[in-house]
Structure formats: structure tokens, C-alpha cells
Amino acid sequence: MVTSTPPTLLNRATADTYRHLISQVSGRIAERFATVDRPATGIAPSELRPQIEAVDLDRPLPGLDDALDEIDALYLRDAVWFHHPRYLAHLNCPVALPAVAAETILASVNTSVDTWDQSAGGTLIEQHLIGWTARRIGYGPDADGVFTSGGTQSNLQALLLARDEAVEYVVKNSQHPPRGAEVLPRLRLFASAHSHFSVVKAARLLGLGEDAVITVPADADRRMNPRALDAALETCRGEGLVPAAVVATAGTTDFGSIDPLEAVAEVCESHRVWLHVDAAYGCGLLVSPTRRDRLDGVERADSVTVDYHKAFFQPVSSSAVVVRDRGSLRHVAHHADYLNPAEALHPNQVDKSLQTTRRLDALKLWMTLRSIGPDAIGAMFDRVCALAGEIWAHLEADPRFTTAAGPSELSTVLFRVEGVADEVQPLAREAVAASGEGMVAATRVDGRWALKLTLLNPDTGPAEVVPVLEALAARAAAIGEAA
Ligand SMILES: *Cc1c(COP(=O)(O)O)cnc(C)c1O
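Above: query sequence and pyridoxal-5'-phosphate SMILES. Below: predicted holo C-alpha cells.
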């Protein structure tokens, strides 16, 4: 007889254990959500590390309950809570309830969405969501794409497609065709200084090298200057180099600024260069009832990154890369006899993906759209954009602060506490985080420290944000005096 000790695998015999376990877990989490009164406890690594490292992973606890108690003590008690209205730091959102429910489903069933014979309906669900996203972008029937682990991977894949298109073009149009590898050092990517660091990382991974990314000047509002782009592409060609892609950012991480998509697309079309739009942050505008026009021109891109886990209130991971022409996805296709032979009869997603085994993250967005609908998501994203405008105006009017950038096109706010030394800004942020008064971010703007709010919680209003600003001013003043 086969025996196993609890906790056992999820199967027919353990269905009741599963029910009990999930209800216990949800009970504990619900209790946390009902009682958490600050975004983080501000615990230091020095306090937590000895406790976590003392856990002997070779000696299990007596049961599931004990393991849950331990997780409570080591992780949940001091976790960072993005749903808390005073969490104002990074691009993390509170998550939509239907998506959390779907997370339980997809983890339990454990579908792998790479081939039909591992996912069945999961494949079609993902494809239908990609089609929906493509139509929101404004793409035609030739569009396609795939879910990814995040914007970093979406950008990497898009730039891989652009790279291989460029190499193919050069090889095809040369009198003495070079080998593909010989073309790589001549390829260049173009992005503004405010683009995400994953663009430079992608260049490195794609064998182009960091120097392959040419910085295109931006205007005072941190948006790519299309005339400067035109000139940079001209120079590139003049030097015998090959422009492989332009990355326009639709929502820069620090400023929420959106590169002028129509004008940039115009330049890319005239130079016949691949345009990738990194809308990891700004993709929420795709469903916005009042601000969709800020993405006008996105449909002229060859590829688009969308991070549902930033602007669609989805749990990590949930992202996609969407392409205007599905033919370009051939660059990541590989046919393995055991998995997806070229003559396979059924649809599959592994042909389009950098990953093989892959979660059905799409189910979370599916359940969200099917239970609350896209308008509700768009309205929530609108609310955080509107709040950013209000807070920016509040800071402008208060002499204790200066804004460090103009009003955002999305939902960030950059500012400084007046009358204190530069290095006090991040210290004030640390102090406010450690006290539980609120979490904000710090970054450098034009070489000087600035404080940053990234507003992604539609339940947060000025009544929550203003006390955090007050705390920052008070802490900064106190630190300044002590120095
Ligand atoms: C967050 C972000 C990324 C990276 O996305 P991940 O999901 O964190 O990998 C890429 N581009 C922009 C503009 C971003 O804000």
C-alpha cells in the first residue's frame, strides 16, 4: 500500500483537507486585512534575518497549522501592504478580489498554458484576452501576443523580435550577406533617458551591449523629442549602423510622462524602424473612460508592453507583450517533437513565448473582466490619475514644499521638502516609513534627491495623503535641526 504523511498532495482523497486549508488561510488573511493599520512595520533586516535563518528547513513542523503560524510570525506580521491607503511608494497596486479568487483556481489546477494538451481551455482564454487587449490598443486582426512574467520580460521579448527583424532585413538586403552574429554589433536601440532600465538590460541580454542604447533627448516634461529622434536615426544610418528599434515609454516610471506617440510613430515609419511602446504603467489608459486619448498613436507601434499587474489591479505576475503582426513572433518559435511539432493540430502558446512551462495568469484578468468589467478598472485608474493632480496642486500651494516636476500625465507626484539639505529628503522618507506613518519613494531628479508618490490605490484620497506629507515635513525639519 502506498502511504504518505500529511500534508499530502491535492487530489481526490484530500479534497476535504483542501477545503479546510483554504478556508483557514483565507480566514487568517482576512483577519490581517481587517486589522492592518499601517503600510509596513518598518522592521529592519537585522531583526528579521536571524529569525528566518534559524528555521531548520530539514525539520518540518508537526502540521499545516504550525507552518501557518510560523508564516504569520516571520512574514505576514511585517509584510508591506500595498492596499493600505498610506502606501504611496512604488508601482504596486491593491489587487482586485476576483483576481485573487482566480489565483487560487489557477494554482490549484496548476495548468501550464504552453500547449493545448496541458491547458485546453486555458490556451483559448489567454488568446481571447490577448485579442481583447490588441483591440483596445487599436490593432487589426493580424495582432497577437502572449502573457509574460512582467514588463521586463515583455520588453525583452519585444526587443528580441525587433533585433531579429533587423538582422533578417540586413542579411536579405546585402550584396554579400553577413552572418547574423556579424550584424549584432551594428544594431542600435533608441530610448529617452527616462525609459525603464529593462531596456538597457534587454540590450545586454540580446548581445547588443549597453552602448547599443542611444539616449534620445527629452523635453522639459520628460517626453522624447521626436525631432531629436529623427536626427539620431539619421546619424546612426550615416555611420553605417542599423537602427533596430525605438522604445517609446507610455508612462515613465518616475514621472508618468508619455512620449509623443503619434510624432514618434511618424518618425519610425519614415525611417522604417520598429517601434516598441512600453506601456507597462500607462496601459491602464486603455480602459480609461476619460483619458484614453493620451495613448493615441499606440496602435502604430509594432509591439506594446502592458503590465496588468500595475494598472489593472492584478496580482503579480500578469503582463503581456502584444504585436501588431503575428508573423514577427516566429522569431521565438521553436518546434520540439515532444511538445509542439510543426505539424501540431491544436493551438498552443509556447510557440510565442520565451517561457515553456507557464502559469495561467490570464485567468485573473479574465475573472476580473467577467465580474467587474473593464469600465470599473478604467474608472479606478482615472481616480488615481486625478488624485495625483490634486496632490500636485496641494504641494504647489504649500510653501513648505516645492514640486520637482510638472503635473504627471499618470499618477506620480515628485516634490521636495523646502529648507532642508538635499540628503535630508531620503532620510525623511526613511523616518516616515519606519514609524508606519506612510511609505513614499525617493529618486533623483536632475541630480538632486526628490520624494516620489506613486498613487495606485483608488481608495486613497487627500485625507490619507496629506498627513503623510505633514509627517515628511515634520521629520525633515527635525532631521535638519539635529544635523
Ligand atoms: C515597471 C516597469 C517595467 C518593468 O516591469 P516589471 O513588471 O516590473 O518587470 C518596465 N517599464 C516600465 C515603464 C515600468 O514602469
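Residues 91, 150-152, 155, 196, 198, 249, 251, 253, 278, 280-281, 307, 319 surround pyridoxal-5'-phosphate (CB under 6 Å).
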